[in-house]
């Protein structure tokens, strides 16, 4: 196929047109790219795609400099970002789009490495020259009523959610002007990591940045689960886009209040709140299939495994990427040791 890419200056991107694509994700929006620019030092990249001279879609990503090399991520691991990739008029173009992007990224954008997580890449088919890591997920269909959502949950999920609400747990939406909310969330997630002997993989400032950029757009829902005493038992931050999908972005709870099952009540409200805003599905993100502690499975949904594709201009970069991942995990444990 004669496929080519044309970079469009951000000021000239027809954002409303892109947001109208049926395959659009919140992680491709203008506000999300601003969040990545602030927290990752990333340079947003928006490419229009042409096939045989005809406009057939768009690509959204961002470049970063690492160890003197330019890298294109859509997204990169560690960005607190899920599916990005392409918006296409025809899903059948995905294979050609991925392989053509690798050539464009290494030649025109001068990138040494490329990573793509696109919601269409679910077949386990790895294009020539690429490597792949499976991302196991779970997606709940929101195009239904409460009764069907409940039927889709596991028996234990329904029981625990109802028990939480009967016990007096109240879940409410929070305004971004609530100065305590992000601090409450980060304190809770820090406790969760500490129970595993780790420190959080991201700073509180990243959560603050997400709220600052996304909340004004209407693409972010903040939820707090409170006990009858008024104490905060759990918090959650859920990004999404009307007409597209919502996601399980950030969620945490206080270990002292686990017996109240606040997480079940919180996520139940997140599903219903995003359905009311017009989201068609809810993506629970990465999960460990078969784990006895698979909390997300309580809410039903369909298993979805996406291929996280990566392409390196130089083979040695693949080994360097694995080393960097191991180093990051070691430093995470070291930070926890020092803070303890």
Q: What are the key terms here?
A:
Aminopeptidase; globular; single chain; BioF2-like_GNAT_dom; ten-stranded mixed sheet; four-stranded antiparallel sheet; 340 residues; 2 domains; Acyl_CoA_acyltransferase; disordered C terminus; alpha+beta; PG_Glycine_Bridge_Synth; 9 helices; 14 strands
Task: Note the topology.
Layout: E1 3-7, H1 15-19, H2 30-40, E2 43-51, E3 54-66, E4 69-74, E5 85-88, H3 94-107, E6 113-117, E7 130-141, H4 146-152, H5 155-166, E8 170-173, H6 181-194, H7 204-214, E9 220-226, E10 232-239, E11 245-247, E12 250-253, H8 262-276, E13 281-283, E14 302-312, H9 316-339
Parallel strand pairs: 4-6, 11-13
Antiparallel strand pairs: 1-2, 2-3, 3-4, 3-5, 6-14, 7-13, 7-14, 8-9, 9-10, 10-12
Helix pairs in contact: 2-7, 5-8
């Amino acid at each position: 196929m004669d496929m080519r890419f044309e970079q469009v200056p951000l000021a000239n991107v027809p954002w409303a047109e892109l947001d109208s694509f049926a395959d659009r994700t919140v992680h491709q929006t203008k506000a999300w790219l601003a969040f990545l620019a602030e927290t990752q030092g990333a340079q947003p990249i928006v490419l229009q795609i042409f096939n045989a001279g005809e406009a057939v879609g768009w690509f959204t990503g961002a470049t970063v400099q690492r160890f003197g090399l330019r890298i294109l991520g859509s997204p990169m691991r560690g960005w607190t970002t899920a599916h990005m990739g392409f918006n296409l008029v025809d899903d059948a173009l995905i294979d050609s789009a991925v392989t053509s992007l690798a050539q464009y990224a290494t030649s025109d954008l001068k990138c040494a490495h490329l990573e793509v997580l696109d919601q269409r890449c679910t077949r386990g088919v790895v294009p020539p020259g690429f490597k792949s890591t499976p991302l196991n997920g779970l997606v709940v269909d929101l195009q239904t009523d409460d009764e069907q959502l409940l039927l889709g949950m596991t028996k234990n999920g329904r029981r625990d959610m109802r028990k939480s609400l009967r016990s007096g747990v109240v879940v409410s939406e929070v305004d971004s002007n609530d100065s305590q909310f992000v601090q409450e969330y980060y304190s809770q997630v820090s406790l969760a990591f500490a129970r595993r002997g780790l420190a959080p993989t991201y700073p509180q400032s990243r959560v603050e940045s997400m709220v600052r950029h996304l909340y004004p757009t209407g693409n972010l829902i903040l939820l707090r689960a409170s006990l009858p005493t008024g104490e905060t038992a759990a918090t959650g931050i859920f990004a999404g886009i009307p007409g597209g999908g919502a996601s399980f972005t950030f969620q945490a709870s206080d270990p002292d209040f686990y017996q109240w099952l606040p997480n079940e009540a919180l996520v139940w409200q997140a599903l219903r709140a995003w359905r009311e805003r017009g989201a068609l599905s809810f993506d629970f993100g990465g999960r460990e299939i078969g784990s006895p502690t698979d909390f997300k499975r309580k809410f039903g949904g369909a298993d979805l495994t996406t291929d996280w594709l990566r392409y390196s201009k130089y083979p040695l970069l693949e080994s360097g990427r694995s080393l960097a991942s191991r180093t990051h995990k070691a430093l995470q444990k070291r930070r926890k040791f020092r803070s303890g």
